[in-house]
Amino acid sequence: MIKRIILVRHGESDHHVRGLTGGWTDSHLTALGERQAHVTGERLAELLEGAESCLYSSDLARAAETARIVGERLDVTPVLDADLREFNNGEAADMTWEQAQEIQRSPTEPLVDHVPYPGAESWRMMNERVCRCLERVAHECPDTAVIISHTLSGMCVVHWWLRLGPEWWDRIAYDFDPCSLTLLNVNVFGERTISRLNDTRHLAAAGSESEAGAMPGPAA
After folding, report:
1. Does 16 reside within a domain?
2. What CATH number did the domain enclosing 124 receive?
3. Among residues 69, 64, 20, 74, which one has the least CA distance to residue 44?
4. How many folded domains does the chain comprise?
5. Which of 52, 62, 161, 192 could pair covalently with 13 via S-S, beta carbons 3.0-4.6 A apart?
6. Contact assessment for residue 64 and residue 78, using Cβ atoms and an 8 Å cutoff
7. Domain of residue 142, residue span
8. DSSP state of 111
9. In which residue ranges of the chain is pLDDT below 70?
10. Could you report the per-residue pLDDT of 7-24, keeping only the tens digit for each?
């Protein structure tokens, strides 16, 4: 059984500073985002010293660019997997938040099956594809997996680790700042734990924290 997951949100991206939706908007890292990725790679090298590790990433540009920088520091080639992508926001991709609000659908019940934009997916659909990837990761990487992903798909990673089903989507949420670290471990009792959540101390020490806050709505 996999012993540890280190979940990393990608670095600051240009959609954060341009007021665009996230999701499948295929934005690139800003200059600050690149610095954050370098700092995060250094911190991961410290955390992973002596551990057998694998590196997996969403294939969206902002995550893949973060993974490339981190992978160079760890001397590991990242595995890019589309199943780790952020929430598919359909026709809202590449739109401003104001434009996306014009096509956003009113919530329906159950919320886990709500499709907020034309051509988008539901929370359940995203959860199923992310969990499908994690089952592969658990089989391929017996010790520590570094996973570079996004906000909502990162929530899927935490829920999978804690064995929480999709019905928990409207009960628990997590904040993930750019290039934050979330450590998921198995403790001495064999229990799956969250030992750190949204840790940005490595960025603060390097003066590289992002001021771009999460935007409202799905797939921030």
Report:
1. yes
2. 3.40.50.1240
3. 74
4. 1
5. 62
6. yes
7. 4-205
8. G
9. 212-220
10. 999 999 999 999 999 999
